[in-house]
Amino acid sequence: MPEPTLKNSPSKIPLARELLRRYELKAKKSLGQNFLADPKIAEKIVSLSELPSGKTVVELGVGLGTLTYALAKVAKRVIGFELDQNLIEILEKERFLPPNVEIRHGDILKLDYQALAEEIGEKLIIFGNLPYYLSSRLLWNLIQERKDIDFCVFMFQKEVAERLMARPGTKDYGPLSVLLALTAKVKKLMELSPGCFYPPPEVRSSLIKIKFINNSLPNEKELLKVLKASFASRRKKLVTNLKALGLSKEEARNLLEEINVSSNARAEELSPEKFLALAEKLSRDE
């Protein structure tokens, strides 16, 4: 059976490589541009994400519209954000995106997600092919805005994805691992080879789905401070790193003892629940 096509929209969309050549443009390394190159991969991404039909989807970093087009086949509406004005102009000239797509110029690190959720009238469903240089900063933002977000589906460099799902005691375990373990279900949907992108990156990528399940944590502000201090110097013991929070070594030792953690422990050894307990103790002592 042939795949369904959108009304008033071409059955075949131009490839990223073709569009860049046509407009004599190159991918900008400064923006971490590696465009999704294969429309079939884009459709697979949408399928694996289990995107409900009839929803509004937010896409962060539209690029040259390959994923946007696939999303528009399922979604009621796609609101896409793109920082590169040249790419927006290409999409406006080519006119292959269907009428249910709206492209807005904007920096995804500065979006007001609460206002966007209010505009749409429901929690946000977010997709994106994220450049390495802003992945961590964006995730910090989204975790703190999670009450307005249903789920996210992102393409990350493989090493970033491994950090998100890392367990205590591993080299990839860090603040984002802890926060996501406490607030979300994180699932790897597939791996993507460099050839899925143009220009191809040097490393493999992973498609990750983040479904937020916990809108509030006790002592969350304190927890964020604890995580930043604890992982600031991974080789140092916690009693040393906690000095950044105004604690003496003796106070830090006593605090760790109260939550049954060795004074010789390093941050990567603590479970997410232990970090929560540490934040609770600190908030009580303030």
Topology:
Elements: H1 16-22, E1 35-36, H2 39-49, E2 56-60, H3 66-72, E3 77-82, H4 85-94, E4 101-105, H5 113-120, E5 124-129, H6 132-144, E6 149-157, H7 158-164, H8 175-183, E7 184-192, E8 197-198, E9 205-212, H9 220-230, H10 238-241, H11 249-258, H12 272-285
Parallel strand pairs: 2-3, 2-5, 3-4, 5-6
Antiparallel strand pairs: 1-8, 6-9, 7-9
Helix pairs in contact: 2-3, 6-8, 9-12
Integer count of domains: 2
- Strand line-up across the major sheet: 4-3-2-5-6-9-7
CATH topology-level name of the largest domain? Rossmann fold
Distinct helical segment count: 12
List keywords for this structure.
286 residues; methyltransferase; 9 strands; Helicase, Ruva Protein, domain 3; 2 domains; alpha/beta; RNA binding; seven-stranded mixed β-sheet; disordered N terminus; elongated; Rossmann fold; two-stranded antiparallel sheet; 12 helices; KsgA/Erm; single chain
Describe the overall structure.
Its EC number is 2.1.1.182. This is Ribosomal RNA small subunit methyltransferase A. Residues 41-214 form the Ribosomal RNA adenine methylase transferase N-terminal domain. It catalyses: adenosine(1518)/adenosine(1519) in 16S rRNA + 4 S-adenosyl-L-methionine = N(6)-dimethyladenosine(1518)/N(6)-dimethyladenosine(1519) in 16S rRNA + 4 S-adenosyl-L-homocysteine + 4 H(+). One of its GO terms (cellular component) is cytosol. The N and C termini lie far apart (65 Å). The chain folds into two domains: 16-212, Rossmann fold; 220-285, Helicase, Ruva Protein, domain 3 (Orthogonal Bundle), CATH 1.10.8.100. The longest helix is centred in the last third of the chain and has 14 residues, at 272-285. The protein is elongated and about 65 Å long. It has helices at residues 16-22, 39-49, 66-72, 85-94, 113-120, 132-144, 158-164, 175-183, 220-230, 238-241, 249-258, 272-285; strands at 35-36, 56-60, 77-82, 101-105, 124-129, 149-157, 184-192, 197-198, 205-212. The model is unreliable at 1-11 (pLDDT under 50). It is built from twelve helices and nine strands. With 286 residues, it is an alpha/beta fold. Helix 6 links the parallel strand 5 (124-129) and strand 6.
